[in-house]
Amino acid sequence: MSSGASSLRFPLPAGEELPTTRRQLTQEVISGYAEASGDLNPIHLDPGYAARAGLDSTIAHGLLTLGVACSGVEAFAQGSAYVSLVSCRFSAPVPSGQEIACAARVAGSDSETALIELDVLTASGERALTRAKVQLRRL
Question: Is residue 3 a part of any domain in this protein?
Answer without folding.
Answer: no
